[in-house]
Amino acid sequence: MQMEKNLNSPARVRLTALFDEGSYKEIGSCVMEKNAPAGVVCAYGYVNGNPVYAFAQDQSVEKGAVGAAQAEKIAKVYDLAAKTGAPVVGVFDSNGAFMDGTVDSLNAYSLLMTKTAAVSGVVPQIAVIAGPCAGSAAMMACASDFVVMAEDAELFLTPSFEKGAGSAKAAAANGIAALTAADDKAAIEKARELINLLPVNNMACVPCMEYDAPAAAGGKDMQSIVDSIADGGSVVELYADYAGAAYTALASVAGSTVAIAATNKTQDKLTEADCAKLARFVRTCDAFSIPVITLVDTLGFDGTNDTELTGAVRALTRLAGTYAEATTAKITVITGKAVGPVFVALGGKYSNADFTYAVDGAYIAPLAPEAAVEFLWHDKLAGADNLAAKRTELAKEYTETLASAEAAAKQGCVDEIVAAEELRAVVASALAMLEGKRVTNLPRKHNNLPF
Fold this sequence. Notes:
451 residues; 2 domains
């Protein structure tokens, strides 16, 4: 006799919202754990027509407690995803493991971490935090490519008495949650939106879709430039509340998914967190061959003491290595300032960008203009009646001559100079030409960039 299911359980309601109407089928619905159904619902189906596997922890059964049976059910989802090349969505809502004093729960989480790691970079993984997600479950969720968190959910390794320590707001501020949502229903909808933009696996092409015209070009701030390149209404910013200078988003250009990484979101200097944000995002996109468009407008790094500067060196080294290693299509656009090591990392002639463009009026230099004037034209400053005014005058001259986009183009450091109103057309054309890009790196186990 078939086991009676609680069709109104939070887990099944969430899976119904995730999958296209009437498309999902359960896996292992009769599995028992400690004389009750295992506290997770596993299923497969379609999301916007894309095949997807999913699991949703079930608070209505033993508070979603994790044991060996639940782990085996979820492990099967990952095994099927690996075999068929389909994304995995995990909905986390559990008060933790069965507290029976044995090591079984640790083995259960160990199995799940192994399965998560096995498909990392092979199929997209999206974690939806819809309720409590604690301890080892938090590690598993954070190992996903993207974490989407409901505002009333909790995410923590160990309980804290500090107010808001495990909140969605804290997770977003610390760069853990890529997206937050008002409730679990909205979080599920954001997961659907991500699936629509992601390839189904690391061997698949990026999605192609119908698109609307972008915003008119003309604005010089970062968001205006992004909106003038991307298709209308397609931009989904990720990690918006983490790191103030860096900007990361998925979008589409001429109907095809792209990644947009930019600087100067709210400030023109990068911190260690900004570098980490950009590196993580580019690494994720490279795993699934999503083309990366990088918009550079920064004076370099924000560091006032030895600790900050040392951290910046490590972070920039990791960022530069991530860009150099990435084999996906990469287009860099200097939209304003590109000074020193940042240009080396993101757009230098040998930084592995396929195309590097500069917008009219951009400048590229080893030093900030004021510093360059002190080094190069100190004699011109000597004896000036108004030193500050003279320094400003010479800095302007420097940016328009030695550090101009034209000078960089003449030296082959940028491929072309582009007018702002032509940027989308140029980027779209370059993306089309790079569609068939195939690059193989030297054989190795993995790189050894500094963490």
